[in-house]
Amino acid sequence: MREKKLKKLQRELRILEEANSGKKKAMERVLDLAYGRTGKLRREIVEPLLTDPGALLPERIIPEVEKSRPPVYSPELRALLTSSYSRTTKPLSNKLLDRPPKIPDRADPESEEAQLLGPFSKRREVNIRWRYFTTEIKKVLPPLEVVVEQSPTQQNSRQMTDKHSLIQAGARPIGLQGSGVMEDALAIAGPAYSPPPKTRRERRSSNLNEQPAPTPSSPLQTHLPKRFVRRRFRELLSRVPVLTCRPSSKPGTRSGRYSVTAPLNAVSNALRYEPCRLPMVDDVDLAWIDMAQKQTPSDAKQKRSK
Fold it and tell me: For residue range 233-262, what is the model confidence (pLDDT) as tens digits?
């Protein structure tokens, strides 16, 4: 037992040393452990999502057995299981959550298979449902916190993460709610797009009295190349979904509606062509657009004929 613990400590120490030296795989491993993508912290984040305090207990599949109740999918868990941003594999549908694919048609006592072959074993149905539940939970990427979106249809929409806003929206805190961990990761990753530095000619032709734009402050303090660290954090954010709760507009309804998105500055193929990742329009682009708008179709046709 002691030798196993020593080997584990040596392995973890080696991973930390490789991460400090700039090894990509080791850095990803350390970030996944620190932000709950794997390990004990991930299990602690997922555990509250496995229950729904506001839901009624489902009926027993076997009437005389208390443990035969099927698993309960909370609204947060349903949103995570049915979204591609919070899954390591293909997202599920609500139909599969209500009826796992391995349950045969024979489980329905009114089906033709049940009438020909007899009823399906209730114990097997219980085992299939719980096995499917535990298997799919392992493929979920848990969020670090719940974001409450206030006034989603208005331009002045705000996203809140404090406990008071969660209580008003009827949501419960999960993960590292209110710790500021997600905000720090977003700050280290930086914006989705940063303009390239100006060339020497552009600097000379620019107005000397023009004040340079202030650069946003970053909490990143490291001996490693900052570009390398920002890239690793952007890849990490692609594995950290954003769980958003929109309060219900119906009076008397406490629970909100949940949706899952990805951070805008995450490195992901799904966000490759998002507007936030495209460069801002500058004076040169505006000049080209203005020239294209002034050009008539006949002029363009003459140029093509030449």
Answer: 999 999 999 999 988 766 555 567 899 998
